[in-house]
Amino acid sequence: MTETLPPCPECNSAFVYEADSLLICPECGHEFAPGAAAEGDVVRDAVGNLLADGDTVTLIKDLKLKGSSTTIKVGTKVRGIRLVAGDHDIDCKLPGVGAIGLKSQFVKKVTD
């Protein structure tokens, strides 16, 4: 019975190998614990800060909403985000707009 190793969480390479208690990706050099890959994906903002449910973020670029003529301006503060799986990894509500999905690459975490 062969054990299937999880893909690299950084580059999704399937060529991961075991070394002692770590898994190592030969393509990008990322080292990680076997349990860390099974916990799920981590979501980071545009500058690399780790995001969590309930965080407050600001937009770093003007975003045009699909299907409408509305544009959400840079600097708009979004409170109480919820992380979800998928292409748009942040669900949130904006006053005057409603519920929308955002990509984490267009937001920056607000630190108080």
Automatic annotation (TrEMBL):
<dbReference type="Pfam" id="PF03831">
    <property type="entry name" value="YjdM"/>
</dbReference>
<dbReference type="InterPro" id="IPR004624">
    <property type="entry name" value="YjdM"/>
</dbReference>
<feature type="domain" description="Protein YjdM N-terminal">
    <location>
        <begin position="4"/>
        <end position="32"/>
    </location>
</feature>
<dbReference type="Pfam" id="PF08274">
    <property type="entry name" value="Zn_Ribbon_YjdM"/>
</dbReference>
<feature type="domain" description="Protein YjdM C-terminal">
    <location>
        <begin position="43"/>
        <end position="110"/>
    </location>
</feature>
<protein>
    <submittedName>
        <fullName>Alkylphosphonate utilization protein</fullName>
    </submittedName>
</protein>
<dbReference type="InterPro" id="IPR013988">
    <property type="entry name" value="YjdM_C"/>
</dbReference>
<dbReference type="InterPro" id="IPR013987">
    <property type="entry name" value="YjdM_N"/>
</dbReference>
<comment type="similarity">
    <text>Belongs to the YjdM family.</text>
</comment>
